[in-house]
Amino acid sequence: MAPLTPWVKRLLIANLVVYFLLPYGSPVYLRGMFIPSYFLYQPWTAVTYMFLHAGFQHVFFNMLALFFFGPRIEQRLGGKDFLWLYFLGGLGGALLSIFFAPNNPIVGASGAVYGVLLAFALYWPNERIYLWMILPVPAWLLATFMVVGSLWSGLSGGAGNTAHFAHLGGLAAGFAFIRWRDWKRGTAKRDFQKKMEVGGGGGVLRDRTALARWEMIDVSSMHELNREEVVMLLARARKDGVQSLTHEQRQFMERMATAR
User: Does residue 167 have an active-site annotation?
Assistant: First the structure.
C-alpha cells in the first residue's frame, strides 16, 4: 500500500471532523445537504454535501476506499490534479442528480471517491482488488460493475436510499478528467519533443542532470507497483537515454524524485 499522501490525509481528516461535528439531521447538516432541485438557491451545497454522511457505515466505507486508492492516484497525478479529480467527481455526481433525481437529497463523498476509483482502474486495470477482503477482482472489472450497477439501480429505482446517479456522475466525471488530462499531456509531450529536437547540447546536459536526480530516488517506502515502475524506467533511461522516456514518464520520475 502506498504511503498516505498529503491531500488524501487532509480529505480524510476533513470528512471525519465534519462527521463528528455535524450529526445527521442537525440544522447545519440540513443546510449543507444537496437537494438537486434547490441548486440555484443553494449552490454551495454542490460542494458541502461531499463532506456530510448519513451514518458511520457511510463515512467508514467512503474513507476506507479513499485511504486505499487515493494515495496511489495522488502520487501518479500530483496534488493539484488529484484535487481536480476528487472535486470534479463530486460535482459530476451533483450535476447528474439534477437531471435524473431532482427531488432526492444526497450527502456523502461517494461521487468523489468513485471518480478516484475509476482513475485507479484506468491506470492499473489488471491490479487485483479483494472484495470483502476475500474475492480477487481486477480493477477494470470492478469499475465495469460499478458503472453497470449504478446505471441499472438508478434507472430501475432500486435501493432508494442510495444516490446511484451521484455515483454514476462521479464515474463519468473521473473518466472525462483523466482522458482530458491524458490528451493535454500528449500535446505537451509533442511540444517537448520539438524543443528537444532543437535543444542541442543543453538538452544533453539536462538529461544527465535528470538521470542523476532519478538515481537518488528512495524506492524502499514506495508501493510495489510504483517501485517496479521506477526501477523499470530508470533502467531504460540508463540504457537508451532519458529521451527514450515519454513526457508523462519523465513527469512521474520527477514526482518520485521530489516525494518526501
Answer: yes
Q: Looking at residue 141, what is its pLDDT?
A: 76
Query: Is 99 within 8 Å of 39 (Cβ atoms)?
Result: no
Buried b (16+ CB within 10 A) or exposed e, 31-65: ebbbbbeebeeeeebbebbbbbbbeeebbeebbeb
Residue of 58, 97, 110, 164 with catalytic role: 110
Q: Which fold has domain 6-180?
A: Rhomboid-like fold (1.20.1540)
Give the containing element (helix H, strand E) for 137. strand 135-138
pLDDT digits (tens, 9 = 90+) for 92-111: 999 999 988 888 899 989 89
Give domain limits for the chain: 6-180, 199-258
Q: Tell me whether residue 223 is one of the annotated catalytic residues.
A: no
Active-site choice (53, 58, 164, 167): 167
